[in-house]
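Example (one chain per record):
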Amino acid sequence: MGDVSLSLGMVIDGLLVVLMVGLSAGLVLLHRRIARLRSEQRLFAELVARLEAASQQTRVALDAFKKEADNLTDLEQRIAVARSLKEELLVVTQAGEALADRLTGLASTARRAVKGTEHPPQGSAKARPAASSPQRERVVVLEALKSLR
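Predicted structure:
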């Protein structure tokens, strides 16, 4: 019986050694997995930091886009005002051109009238001196302008 108990003890000891070797191998594998998980955790933290930085850049870009959109709206309003002013200036210019044409016609008529009065009457021997021609024209043009009002 002594041999049997010794054999049984050795079997149990062998079994314990096998279990301890298995447990040690499992612990080594677990340690490697934990180390890899910590490394991946650092990579994940770096990824989150990059994502946060990209998110911040996106916010800044969106703010810039909003500001540009506001500037664009302001610019569109200014363009609309400028177009309106352009149209008004065109109308005023056309009216000015029409008035200038009328004044030119009146000045022509006035010149012809002045030239007609500068000739001495047929029956008189000596013509009396007429007022200076440019001054007389101004008077006639001014009278014509007054009649337009």
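Caption: Confidence is low (pLDDT under 50) at residues 124-129.
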